[in-house]
Amino acid sequence: MAATIKKKGYLSVDELKSHGCMPDESRFQQGPVAVLECIQEIPCNPCVDACHYGAIYIGECITDLPQLDTEKCIGCGACIAHCSGLAIFVVDKTYSETTAAVSFPHEYLPLPEKGLIVQGVNRKGEVVCDGKVIRINNAKANDHTPIITLEIPKELADEVRGMKRLPNEPDKHEEPHICQCINGNKEADSDSVIVCRCEEVTAGEIKKAIEQGAETLTGIKRRTRAGMGLCQGRTCSRIVSQMLAQAKNKPVSEIEPDRSRPPVKPVEFGIYGGVDNE
Amino acid sequence: MNSSADAVVIGGGMQGLSCAYYLSLKGRKVILVEQGDLANGTTSRSDGDNFTSDSAPGYMTAFSKAAVDLIRELSTKTLGRDVEWMERGCILLAESEAEMEAARETFKSKTADGIPCRLMDAKEVHDDEPNTAPDIPGGIEFLEGGSVNPMLLSYAIGEAIQNMGGQLLRFTKVTGIEKDENGAVVKVNTDKGDIVTKTVVIAAGVWSAKIAKYAGLDIPVTAMKGDILVVEPDVAITRRKTIELGYNMVRNEEAGTGQRKIDPFMQAHGIGFLIEPTNRNNALIGFSKYPCNHTRSSNLVTRAMANRAIRFFPMIQNISIIRTYAGLRPWTPDHEPIVSKTPVTGLYLSTGHCGNGITYAPISGKLISQLICGEKTDFDMSPLSLERFLNKK
After folding, report:
1. Which end of chain B has the smaller Cβ count within 10 Å, N or C?
2. CA B351/CA B207 separation, integer angstroms
3. Gap between the Cα atoms of B307 and B273, Å rounded
4. How far is B70 from chain A (nearest CA, A)?
5. What distance in Å separates the CA atoms of residue B289 and residue B251, rounded to the nearest whole number?
6. For domain B90-143+222-331, is the CATH number 3.40.50.12780?
7. How many C-beta atoms lie closer than 10 Å to residue A212's C-beta?
């Protein structure tokens, strides 16, 4: 089950087909349709509510995989930005005689401009073709998950699932200081803002750890558990670094990052210990 | 910045903090010197468990029982801080009928030493811990002992020391120990200045031998690495700490070690199985034991440990590892601690706790304070003395 994604981090077309994720070829010939590349049974269902046409079904058990009613689906793409796993795409194999259109979430800045020729990448992240950006949907309802639609060669419609990230333009995209976000939170008591979501550590607890003598990210982690959870600090370490830098009156660049320890991302014992029979 | 103190404790891990704590309780003016943050070295790389199951019969079992009682009291009462103490006892699992025989022996000797435990057959083991591999023939349950977050305990002890007027010099390196013409300790040099004192305690774990050399003393403390795997949170594998019986053989370097059915790589790296659920709903998985001088996780060792874990709890194969870490146990030739005065007047040692450092810290700190204050010690100090090694030469 889900062999490639656990071992390599991406899915193969064969696996998707065997899980019934790919709509029939006849449906593809009728126009755009959603492709739900979701084969891991996790408790998650925002896609169901995202669809205005009732085309996505999960049912009573929240860990069941979503099922798509391809007759009800019109390929509008409303589900794409609502999938927290970024696992939903819309494929239109009827875009033109020789090309198809693929829509995918793209959470990287800078965003491309319409008409730009970019590099299409497959599920592995390898560049497989050039593609033309035909739409950028960054609607408010998407909550900062822009959807890019790319025109690509028709034969690659089942392969292309993203575009290569454009080079950074540092001057253009100055992000707000995260501490300002915490301190500027007027609605709630800013100390109660949760910084480490895995271990539910608040900004107040981190400030207290710094007051009590934590000098480094590791010192804060050992006092509060911030960064000890499932994501191992991937989410919170930048915020904690900024808080520490602010408290110590130093630039963030002088804050030493916490040590990341293997295996870097969660790996099952069966795979790690080498007794996997697959 | 020069200063003076009744006693200088070198090392800000559990040993040093415990020594400074009990000395402060006795009214001594203490300065603790630590090269990094508190709990920076082996303390933060340990698993924080506290049991009487792995100590040698007789003296060391009595010592470990007193140690567990004292750390429990500190963690749950004296300090008044939540340090994630969780007491559920532990189970030692036998892997084969031959090990079951060893389990019966252990049960007999532990019972004779007054440790509450019970022998379990296969059914009792599987009723109690249903995820255990079906072929496990039995084990022993120890009713007492638990785990603690060693870092939080260290910070709580540090706070208590400061409240009693003790001083914690963090991020300060010891650069020398000075003696007078009679060979007695008079001064500790650090990169931030000198401290005038007549009493120095070296409690610097694997760094102790280097520090002792400053006072012209050779001590037999080396580094013995151990790796740990951290399991994803909120998965129930066992209710309490569960260890393979082979751990005792590896820990105590017994001849029986060779009987375990493991490959030469596991044999050479002292690899076996233990799982320790924590108060925060994840679990730590051990263990390994091999000479090494760095704390990088070994890929081959941690993978072999994962393999060994699956042998005892097959369901583990579908559970994720989120992190591995490693620490260096300060090891001695007879794998028992050195809590002792030394041939250098005024110089004391609390080090070489060989993988039981967290548990043994408070009792060792208490004994050191009794030695320094010239009181009657709770235990006969000769089995813990530095002399036992010096005499062998």
Report:
1. C
2. 9
3. 9
4. 23
5. 8
6. no
7. 14
Q: What is the pLDDT along chain B (393 residues), one digit of tens a residue?
A: 679 999 999 999 999 999 999 999 999 999 999 999 999 999 999 999 999 999 999 999 999 999 999 999 999 999 999 999 999 999 999 999 989 999 999 999 999 999 999 999 999 999 999 999 999 999 999 999 999 999 999 999 999 999 999 999 999 999 999 999 999 999 999 999 999 999 999 999 999 999 999 999 999 999 999 999 999 998 999 999 999 998 888 888 775 544 788 889 999 999 999 999 988 888 999 999 999 999 999 999 999 999 999 999 999 999 999 999 999 999 999 999 999 999 999 999 999 999 999 999 999 999 999 999 999 999 999 999 999 998 665
Among B92, B199, B86, residue whose Cα is nearest residue B146 = B86
ipTM of model? 0.91
Interface test with B, best of A260, A272, A277 (most B CBs within 10 A): A272
State both tokens at B70.
């004292």
Domain ranges of chain A: 3-163, 178-254
pTM of the model: 0.80
A273 touching B, CB under 8 A?
Answer: yes
Question: Chains A and B: how many Cβ contacts under 8 Å?
Answer: 82
The CATH topology of domain B3-45+151-220+334-390 is FAD/NAD(P)-binding domain (3.50.50)
Q: Distance between CA atoms of A143 and A225, rounded to whole angstroms?
A: 29
Which CATH number is A178-254's, of 1.10.10.1100, 3.40.50.850, 3.40.50.410, 3.40.50.280? 1.10.10.1100
B163 touches chain A (CB under 8 A): no
Are residues B319 and A269, on separate chains, in Cβ contact within 8 Å?
yes
